[in-house]
Structure formats: C-alpha cells, structure tokens
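quick one: nicotinamide-adenine-dinucleotide bound model?
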Amino acid sequence: MKTVCRFAASMSRLALTGNAAARRRCFSSTSAAQATWGFIGLGRMGYPMAKNLRAKLPKEDTLFIQDVNKDAMDAFAAEISETATGKVELAATPRQVAENAETIITALPNPAIVKSVYEFMITPASLTKGQISQPRFFIDASTIDIITSREVSESITSSGQGTFVDAPMSGGVVGAAAGTLTFMIGSPSNSVDRATEALLLMGRKVLHLGEQGAGLAGKLANNYLLALNNVATAEAMNMGIKWGLDPKALAGMINISTGRCWPSEVNNPVPGVIPTSPASRGYEGGFGVALANKDLKLAIKAAEEAGLKLPMGKTAADLYDAVEKDVSCKGKDFSVVYRYLGGKE
Ligand code: NAD
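yep, here:
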C-alpha cells in the first residue's frame, strides 16, 4: 500500500465536530484520535462520494481506497494531495482495505462484482483476529438485487466478521458531487445510527426502510416506476407534439395535471422544454440508459422471484434494450427514449 499524504493530528476538523465526532469515535478501535475508513469503487458515483467523505472526516483519520482501475486511484490520490484534505492510502486489493479499515463503503457496478469483492474482503474469515479486532462495518451503496445483497450480508454475519448494511442511493452524479445524495438503507435497528452518521458525510438524507435488504427493495421499486414514467412521458410528449401542440405548453399543462411526474417536470425528454435537462444538452450526462435498464431488470427479476405479475415491465425492458443498441441513443441519458421514438427535436 502507498501512503499518499499525512497531516498532523492537531489540524482542525472539517465537518465532524463536537458530539458527532465524539459519537463516531466510540466505534473506532485504533485510537481515540483516529479512525480508519475504506472506499471501494471510485467510479462516477464513488469517486465524488469518497472525495466528500475524505473532506468531511477529521484529517487524522485514514481513508483506504481501492479500484481495479489504477488510474482512478492515482487521480484520487493526486487530487487529495493537492487539496490537502487528509490521509489516503492506496490498497492493492479489497482484502487490504478490509484488513485496515473499520468502516468500509462500496459503490460497485453490478451484483457479481459486489459478491466477488465482498468474498475477497472476508476470506479467510480472520479479519477480527488481525490488527483491528473489532467487527467491520460494511455499507454497500451499489444498486444490486436483494438476494445477492442478503447472501453477502449472511456470509459476513455468519462468519462473525461484521455488519452489512445495504444503502442504495439516489441523486445521481450531480448529487454525489454536491454531497446531497439520499440513501435508502436496509439495516438492523442497532446499526442505523452508525450507518446514518457515515452516510451523511456523503449525502443529505438517510431513510431507514427496514431490515437488511429493505433499502434495495425500496430503491428497485422506485426505479421501476421511474423507468416506466420515463417511457410514458416520452410517448405522451411525442403524441401531443405530433398533434400540433407546443412542447412547453404541453409540458406546462401536464405538470399541473395528473400526468405530472419527475420525467415530465424535471427531466423532460423534449429538448428546450426544461433548459437544465439532459435533453436540452444533447441528452448528455444524467442517468444513463444502460443504468436505467439495469435497475429495471433487477426489479423485474426480484418481482419474478416473489411471484409478482409485471405486465408493463417486460415491454419496457425490451424497449430499453433497443434504445441501448441504437447508435444515436447509446450512452445517453435515459430520456433519449424520446429520440428513439422519433420525437421532434
Ligand atoms: P461506475 O461504473 O462509474 O463505477 C464503478 C467503479 O467500480 C469503477 O471505477 C470500476 O473500475 C470499479 N470496479 C469494478 N469492478 C471492481 C472490482 N472488482 N474491484 C474494485 N473496483 C471495481 O458506476 P457508478 O455510476 O459509479 O455506479 C455505482 C453504483 O451506484 C451502481 O450500482 C449504480 O447502479 C449505482 N448508482 C448509480 C447512479 C448514477 O447516476 N451513476 C445513481 C444511483 C446509483
């Protein structure tokens, strides 16, 4: 592991002061003045989240980072070194993070990767016999399926190596950078305070929805609705405009009527209707169509496993598959469904 920068423990705390800092110190086993943190997955969400985490932790705390993409780790280390926000260590493997950090956050792309990274962290089952004897506190902010998340949690708790909380997030890349994310958590009630304190270093709201797995259940239900609302909004805007309505007048009417939803009001798919929407900048940025499709399919799979009927889901998933394959839509914000439908731009 490589130490990137060290700063005197006497330097002032940035955000965690007073009671919050004192409470958090209660679960540090290294020393009264230091805590150790880990962050794995420095992607579009994870990188700015880890940056906010590092900026809000006391400088003498250490943050261990890990990503298969070495460039992301190097860029993070260079940025933190420049801004002098505190100690960062580059870990070569997830296991090194788990061996050295008490509280570990992951933001990874899919269920298979989450599973393999956690297996790597907890195998062999000797974490609490190393330098840090305290059980680890794992928070997974990835959007994955509930069954995989429960399996990971079970493997951690049954081997006595720690606690696992699912904390999928909403707010996108913009919210991750601004530190305004909302986390939906599934956690045993005695871990809610600790998870909340950690997550508020990267976001603004933490909603406890129930036992482990409940955060993902909420997140998948919400993103299922979002995926369908997005398609329906694109279809409705397209039909109204083709019938001769002015796009802004149509959106304005919908947004004070019963069709109103986030895709119509904030992320309207028609360019020019909402100046700040991805549609108004060539569908760049925003919530990628591949991610929307991934979440929709996770929700469909979980619903099938529970024996639920989802007549709209399959049709929407087929549509998103086709949108993802279309060269003029691939990689764009998911409101690009409007373009795929042949909407007037
Ligand atoms: P991303 O693909 O940009 O980043 C994932 C990171 O994980 C990458 O840096 C990648 O190199 C790293 N990684 C992959 N395999 C790894 C491994 N085996 N070990 C260590 N690192 C590994 O994804 P993202 O957009 O940051 O999303 C992360 C999670 O958050 C996903 O589950 C996504 O669904 C969810 N999410 C994303 C958004 C969004 O707007 N991007 C919003 C809400 C939730």
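The pocket of nicotinamide-adenine-dinucleotide is lined by residues 40-46, 66-69, 72, 107-109, 113, 117, 142-143, 169-170, 172-173, 287, 291 (CB under 6 Å).
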